[in-house]
Amino acid sequence: MNKHEFCLTREKHLDHMVKVVPFIVCAYAIQCYFIMKFGPEGFAVNGLFFLGACLIQMIAGFATYDLTHVVTFQDEKLTVSIKWLNYERTYHYEEIIKIEVSDVGQPFATMYFTTVSGKKFGFYFVDDADKIKAWIEQKQLPEMQSAA
Known about the structure:
The protein is of the alpha+beta class. It is built from three helices and seven strands, in the order E-H-H-E-E-E-E-E-E-H. Helix content is 51%, strand content 30%. The longest helix has 28 residues, at 11-38. The model has no long low-confidence stretch (mean pLDDT 86).
């Protein structure tokens, strides 16, 4: 039986979103004001509805990804699941040949993985990505030493 070690979290990204979204909405409101004052009426109404819909879709997309994209790290493998798509995939650590972190030392970053088969995939807005990379590399050490 495999014991779940931990799950990938995105709480720091959600905290960041809570801080940033009010400024984005404020910028949108200012933009609405100036477009309504100085822009042609037909363009202003249609354009602002479109921009508002895009803003709502962007925020909802980030939140949906953060809350439904689950990555579970176990002793010998990691499992990726996306709840609302009914998707699940398992990767054993020996399948992963390269791990990259986009912004080392940042509260959240993107992790890129490359497998033996050449497949590349990423996990976005990961809390403590450099610590997770080190943990996976530590799990890979016994396999690498036994292969040598």
